Amino acid sequence: MTNIKKNYSDCLNKLNKFKKDFKVLNLEISKDIKIAANSKNIDILVLYSEYNSSINKSLLNGYLNSLQDNKYKGTTAVLKIPGGAFELPLLSSKLINKYKPKICLIIGCILKGDTQHYEFLSSTVINAIRNVSFDTDTIILNGILTVENNKQAIDRAGKKYNKGSEYANASIKILNFIKKFNV
């Protein structure tokens, strides 16, 4: 996966410049951590793994670009999680409990290798994310790509299928539903 960014950068999503009415807190910056800790209004918490970073960043960029294109005006907090997909559920649970977002998007990429590890990992991670959703009483959008090869990952994370944009559209619909029915 190390050459994906270099070899396929024209296929992946790049982040647009943010407009002033679009607020994104980067939880890797001390100032934004303090704002998030004191905020009662984090609508969306986006967590992505550092493993398969170029794929995950493309999904994130597609997501944030689409939120902005759809004139979303809430607060979104973003944090890169150390490790891969396996670490996402437990760390997500802890961060959801800390920041209490209305919804959470968890982004990762599990790429099939030559062994059965892919099947075990995919199933375990997806089930664990579902459990975190129930345990924290938080809607979690599953942004974990499970793909058989680099091309599938690039197509789904990049401009061809832009799954990040799909996640953003689902997020907006869910937030509108929550607001409409006060749930």
Per-chain topology:
Layout (H helix, E strand, L loop, with lengths): L3 H5 L14 E4 L3 H9 L5 E6 L3 H17 L5 E7 L6 H12 L3 E9 L5 H20 L2 E9 L2 H8 L5 H19 L2
Parallel strand pairs: 1-3, 2-3, 2-4, 4-5
Helix pairs in contact: 3-6, 3-7, 4-5
Q: β content, as a range?
A: 15-25%
- Along the chain, the helix and strand elements come as HEHEHEHEHEHH
**What's the CATH architecture?**
3-Layer(aba) Sandwich
Q: Specify the CATH homologous superfamily.
A: Lumazine/riboflavin synthase
| Helical content band | 40-55%
General form: globular
Number of individual domains:
1
Count of β-strands: 5
How large is the radius of gyration? 16 Å
Low-confidence stretches: none
Count, helices: 7
For this structure, the CATH topology is Rossmann fold
Distance between the termini: 41 Å
Largest sheet: 5 strands, parallel
Assign the structural class, choosing from mainly alpha, mainly beta, alpha/beta, alpha+beta, or little secondary structure.
alpha/beta
What top-tier CATH class fits best? Alpha Beta
What is the spatial order of strands in the main beta sheet?
Answer: 1-3-2-4-5
